[in-house]
Design a protein that fits this description.
This protein has one domain. 26% of the residues lie in helices and 15% in strands. It contains eight helices and seven strands, in the order αααββββααβαβααβ. The protein has a seven-stranded mixed β-sheet with strand order 1-2-3-4-5-7-6, with helices on one face.
Length: 261
């Protein structure tokens, strides 16, 4: 029987693992960058790379449009839950034609882990002013709907009808709401944030321009709220939020009902 978990896939041969994980890649992404069926360039360089170990319950996949390009156009980090469901720890779609902002590293090259362990403030200010959200090194590809379709086909091929995702930032959670995800945990935090940014909320007074990420006009913007939260306005990190989605179904969750992007 074919595997139903990341650990099971990772027991397959290299060719079999590659074929299974390649199902995650949206066809629209392949067409947009005119990628070959084997994901190699004209010189034979492999554009699709993986980090996995045989039988281990985790995989990282990275797809580039050009071999020497610094950032992938698609990146995914998946793991198994305790009961064998698929959990997305991180998922990124980068537009390689857009400017890069080094929010993921300090000027000395030290990694910031997308600003969660340390911060390149100057790069973050430039990214925010350019219209990016926290954690983005480049503009996104605006292909999430197609990516979800491909991912759910992958999930179905593993004989699952539900999967989980961990939004790294506030704006990620709100976006996932729009695509039909619901909360396994974190619903109270999301409602607390909405209440805090409402007209009489406690977070409004903290939008005091004490930093570029805490301006008064941040209260009604999903993206700018996310920057304020990333800047510590909650007094605690945005964490312990897990969402889930049933394949082909959408839950009607909206915790930021009066917000613009």
């Amino acid at each position: 029987m074919s595997p139903s978990s990341i650990a099971g896939i990772n027991k397959l041969s290299e060719a079999e693992k590659r074929a299974v994980y390649a199902r995650i890649i949206p066809k629209g992404l392949v067409d947009l960058f005119n990628l070959s069926p084997d994901f190699r360039d004209n010189s034979g360089n492999d554009l699709l790379r993986f980090k996995y170990a045989s039988g281990r319950p985790t995989v990282e996949m990275s797809l580039k449009h050009q071999f020497e390009f610094p950032d992938p156009i698609q990146y995914g980090h998946l793991t198994d839950t305790m009961n064998g469901q698929i959990h997305v720890l991180l998922y990124i779609l980068n537009d390689p034609t857009s400017p890069r902002f080094d929010v993921d590293q300090l000027p000395n090259g030290q990694k910031t882990v997308f600003g969660t362990q340390s911060r390149n403030i100057e790069a973050e200010i430039r990214a925010m002013e350019a219209g990016l959200a926290p954690g983005q090194v480049r503009r996104g590809l605006r292909m999430l709907s197609k990516a979800i379709i491909s991912f759910e086909e992958f999930i179905t091929s593993l004989r699952h009808d539900i999967y989980f995702i961990e939004p790294l930032y506030y704006h990620n959670a709100v976006i996932f709401e729009h695509y039909g995800f619901a909360y396994q945990q974190g619903s109270k935090l999301m409602k607390r944030i909405q209440s805090g940014f409402s007209a009489s909320g406690d977070l409004i007074s903290r939008l005091d321009s004490s930093s570029p990420f805490r301006k008064s006009d941040h209260s009604s913007s999903i993206r700018l709220r996310s920057w304020s939260i990333h800047d510590g306005i909650l007094g605690e990190p945005f964490s312990k939020v897990t969402m889930y989605k049933y394949v082909g179904k959408k839950m009607n969750i909206n915790t930021c009902f009066d917000c613009t992007w």
